[in-house]
């Protein structure tokens, strides 16, 4: 289980996250939702120790996150990635195997085979020799997911993976993420589209700098919780709540 305890993050003198405590069960596909500026990406990055925290901590099975670095795969927002770097699709995905190599060890036949398998699962065989700059948004996102697969992680963190991609790529990615969950992996996704939350996730975190709810979809994805998080920004969106 991933546990977050009394986590606060300060940015330029303002609280980006205010005393967040929650548990994320293993082998779930967890969505993190909330309005713009709610601290969704900040929560993910603070869990992964990518940003400094004011107080609190995150642990996995009561152990520090740093003990699991090789078993955690992170897919950043595309806007944070330098797409001008001259590297092919195959070599990008191959870098996913690096965390499991020894110091100064080069990828071998085994790592290259894992790379081919990951490319195949994401439907990218025909693109393996292309530079990243030649790909569409959806194809790029599939490359980054393939790189995460090549790492053979236990925890997959994805920051807004569905922004600006085509429907075919989104369906392929969702299928892969569901397969990972069925394999006992934990998937955590920063998400922005309320309309497919119930379809994509079984566990949900709703934020607006403070925690509104963290629970399974039927208990958490309610009009009351959404109104609490989004307020007037919610507009006319009304969800049909599950019967429990």
UniProtKB/TrEMBL annotation:
All residue ranges annotated as the ABC transporter domain in the record: 2-234
InterPro entries registered for this protein in UniProt: AAA+_ATPase (IPR003593), ABC_transporter-like_ATP-bd (IPR003439), ABC_transporter-like_CS (IPR017871), Metal_Ion_Import_ABC (IPR050153), P-loop_NTPase (IPR027417)
SUPFAM superfamilies recorded: P-loop containing nucleoside triphosphate hydrolases
GO molecular function: ATP binding
Pfam family name, one: ABC_tran
Keywords: ATP-binding, Nucleotide-binding, Transport
The UniProt record lists the keyword Ion transport: no
Protein family according to the UniProt entry: Belongs to the ABC transporter superfamily.
Protein name (Swiss-Prot/TrEMBL): Metal ABC transporter ATP-binding protein
Species for this entry: Lactococcus muris
């Amino acid at each position: 289980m991933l546990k977050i305890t009394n986590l606060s993050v300060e940015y330029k003198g303002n609280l980006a996250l205010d005393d967040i405590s929650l548990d994320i069960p293993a082998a779930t596909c967890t969505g993190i939702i909330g309005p713009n500026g709610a601290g969704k990406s900040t929560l993910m990055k603070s869990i992964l120790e990518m940003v400094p925290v004011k107080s609190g901590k995150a642990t996995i099975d009561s152990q520090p996150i740093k003990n699991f670095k090789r078993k955690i795969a992170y897919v950043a927002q595309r806007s944070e990635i330098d797409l001008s770097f001259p590297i092919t699709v195959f070599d990008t995905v191959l870098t996913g195997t690096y965390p499991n190599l020894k110091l100064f060890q080069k990828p071998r036949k085994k790592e290259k085979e894992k790379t081919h398998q990951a490319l195949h699962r994401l439907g990218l065989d025909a693109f393996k020799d292309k530079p990243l700059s030649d790909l569409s948004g959806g194809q790029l996102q599939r490359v980054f997911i393939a790189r995460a697969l090549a790492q053979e992680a236990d925890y997959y963190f994805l920051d807004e993976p569905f922004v600006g991609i085509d429907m075919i790529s989104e369906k392929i990615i969702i299928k892969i993420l569901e397969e990972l969950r069925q394999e006992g992996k934990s998937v955590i996704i920063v998400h922005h589209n309320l309309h497919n939350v119930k379809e994509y996730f079984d566990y949900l975190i709703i934020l607006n700098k403070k925690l509104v709810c963290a629970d399974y979809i039927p208990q958490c994805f309610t009009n009351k919780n959404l109104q609490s998080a989004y307020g007037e920004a919610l507009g006319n969106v009304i969800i049909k709540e599950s019967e429990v």
